[in-house]
Design brief:
It is a single chain. Helix 1 crosses helix 6, helix 3 packs parallel to helix 7 and helix 9 crosses helix 10. It is built from 13 helices and 22 strands. 32% of the residues lie in helices and 26% in strands. A 14-stranded mixed sheet has the order 1-14-15-16-17-13-12-11-10-9-7-8-2-3, sandwiched between helices. The chain is of the alpha/beta class.
Length: 425
């Protein structure tokens, strides 16, 4: 096993060529490499070509650029703009307009609340982490590395004029990054974030590329019309991809899959091609250009910064994640991973959705609790026997049957904190 992995210079330069950035970079240097600059530069090249598509229709690059300019006139330099719209196009326009006016755009999402102290804006775009158990935060981000971006774009293989269905919302780093890349390379971005599954499937019919977090792709693959889709490329990111989902997508669409691992603070870390996933199921791939991945005491470090993930590198330099550093628990003297148990439950044909968490227990120290949405014709004992047979009796969770598991727009489970006890009088 290796302890460090990075991409070679020759391979990194080839990524730049294959990503199509050699022609895009000169335009960006004139208009600045920001969301606003990408829209402005692309509007000059692809003026009346389709830029974005959503359930309301299409916008050309010229129309999108004009909307950004008009909105920017209502924003003062140094302002702070909190972007909370549920509409993908409105989120995109508001963020680009703020930057064009010299203000900060804080991407909160439809249910967000501002977590930062007031300050004078400087034309920045601020992304927040997806807070599910607490308030979201705005982590300090490493500077954007064009080589890292080129590695991801080369793996995806965006093509001018080919529609790309972007399932994560634009206020999320995954959705925003891919939408910006589409705008930069002339590939129409189809904004599917926040829409119902049937609407997303309808938008996917004309898409050559489909991108989403694993939960979104799992739902898409389970739709009755999934087999009628014919994407050239499927891109997963911003979440752990289970080998079960990878196998299902391969069964439906063949070896067209790309998975990437990254964080809001660091950006893209590793990229797994279809060949990587076939040779080493469960891998999240090899480091992107400009990224150094190292393993210290079983913990993943990226460019010297700890990510909070546990993992290892194989002899080919591919990274495997084994969980979060705070994921492993001890229950009755046995080490248990909620993530592993959740994967086994999700693989059962009777489980439509599942979330496993650890809770304190007086007898065992901790116990696993599984909230499960069962399909018709299946019962709790049958599902739990699946875990007991493969993982052992100690891994069997307490099961809570529910009608629906509430999730955020990016597929993360919404955990509601218990109500506070009233103060004593």
């Amino acid at each position: 096993m290796r302890s460090t992995a990075r991409r070679g210079l020759a391979e990194s330069l080839d990524d730049v060529r294959r990503a199509g950035l050699l022609t895009a970079l000169p335009r960006l240097l004139v208009h600045r490499a920001t969301l606003s600059g990408v829209i402005a530069s692309s509007a000059r090249r692809w003026r009346d070509h389709t830029a974005i598509v959503d359930h309301r229709g299409a916008l050309t690059y010229r129309e999108l650029d004009e909307l950004v300019t008009a909105a920017s006139r209502h924003i003062a330099r140094g302002d702070r703009v909190l972007v909370t719209s549920r509409s993908g196009r409105e989120t995109l326009v508001a963020a680009a307009a703020a930057i064009r006016a010299g203000a900060d755009a804080v991407m909160l999402g439809p249910d967000g609340s501002d977590i930062a102290k007031p300050h004078r804006g400087r034309g920045r775009l601020i992304l927040l982490t997806s807070g599910t158990t607490g308030e979201p935060t705005a982590p300090r981000r490493a500077p954007l590395n064009p080589l890292t971006v080129s590695s991801l774009l080369a793996a995806i293989g965006l093509r001018e004029g080919e529609r790309v269905l972007v399932l994560p919302p634009v206020h999320h780093g995954h959705g925003l990054s891919l939408t910006t890349a589409c705008l930069m390379l002339g590939a129409p971005a189809v904004l599917g974030g926040g829409l119902e599954l049937d609407e997303q499937v309808a938008l996917a019919r004309d898409a050559g590329v489909i991108s989403g977090v694993p939960t979104q792709l799992w739902r898409l693959a389970g739709h009755a019309a999934a087999s009628s889709l014919s994407p050239r490329r499927i891109v997963s990111g911003s979440g752990r991809l289970s080998p079960i989902l990878a196998a299902r997508l391969h069964e439906l669409y063949g070896p067209v899959f790309v998975d990437f691992f990254g964080t809001t603070a660091v950006g893209t870390v590793t990229i797994a091609t279809a060949a990587d996933l076939a040779e080493a199921p469960g891998t999240v791939g090899r480091p992107a250009a400009g990224v150094r991945v190292s393993i210290r005491d079983g913990l993943v470090h990226v460019n010297g910064r700890r990510t909070g993930d546990r993992g290892y590198l194989d002899d080919a330099g591919r990274l495997f994640l084994t969980g979060r550093s705070d994921d492993l628990i001890v229950s009755g003297g046995e080490n248990l991973s909620p993530t592993r148990v959740e994967d086994y439950l999700a693989a059962h044909p009777g489980v439509a959705d599942v979330h496993v968490r650890a809770v304190p227990d007086e007898e065992y120290g901790h116990r696993l609790v599984a909230r499960v949405v069962l399909r018709p014709g299946f019962d709790e004992p049958t599902v739990l026997a699946h875990v007991s047979r493969d993982l052992g009796r100690h891994a069997v969770p307490r099961l809570e049957r529910v009608e629906k598991i509430e999730r955020t727009a990016t597929g993360k489970v919404k955990l509601v904190a218990p109500p506070r006890k009233p103060p004593r009088e």
